[in-house]
Fold this sequence. Notes:
The N and C termini lie far apart (41 Å). This protein has a 7-stranded mixed beta sheet with strand order 3-2-1-4-5-7-6, sandwiched between helices. The protein is built from 9 helices and 7 strands. The protein is of the alpha/beta class.
Amino acid sequence: MTQNQWSAVDDYFDSVLGDEDPALAAAAQAHVAFDLPDIGVSRPQGKLLHLLALIQGAERILEIGTFGGYSAIWLARALPPGGRLVTIEWERTFAEAAAGHLEQAGVADVVDQHVGRALDILPTLAEAGGPPFDLVFIDANKPDTPEYFTWALELSRPGGVIVVDNVVLGGAVGEAGNPDGGVRGMRRFHEMLAAEPRVSATSIQTVGGKGYDGFTLALILP
C-alpha cells in the first residue's frame, strides 16, 4: 500500500459519504495561509468526531488545539440546543483564523474560544466550576499530551469520552529509544493510560489522505 492509494480511498469515501460545505472547506485550507503542512484532521476524521459527539449526546465539549477551526466546526454542529464547545489555541493568529471560520459556519455563538497556553487555561476552567465535559478532543502540542489528558480527566464526567489525535506519529511511538519530545510524550501518555483505573482505552492506527497515524479513545468509567 502507498500514500497514493490511501489518498485515493479517502477521496472515494469523501465523494460518496462526504458532506463538507464551504465553511468546512475554507477551514480545511487554513494551513495554506500559514505556509504549514496540512496538520488538521481529515474530512472522515472530522465526521468521526461529529458522530462520536452525537453518539455521546455531548452537551459540553472541550477541544485542546483549535488551529483553523475545522474539527471545532464538526464538533459544534453536533451540539444540541444550549450546548457549548470550549476551545483552546496557543497561537493567536490560528485562533483568529478559526474565529472567522466558526462565524462562516454559523456556530460562533456556541463556541467559547480561549487563546493562550493550554496548561495555563485548563486550571482556570477547573476553578470556574462549570459543568463537566461530556467529550474532550486533544490535538495540540504532543509532548504535553499526558498533562492535557490529566486535565481532561479532571474536567470530564464519569461516562465521558476523551479522544487524543496523532498518537502513532508515523510509527515512531513504537520506538522505545526515540528521543523526539512528541514521541516521548505519547509513550508517557500510554503508560499513564495503562496505570489509570478510571478509564478504559484503546489506540487505533489509521491510514488515509493525511498519511499514517492514529488516535486514542478513552472512556471514563462510571
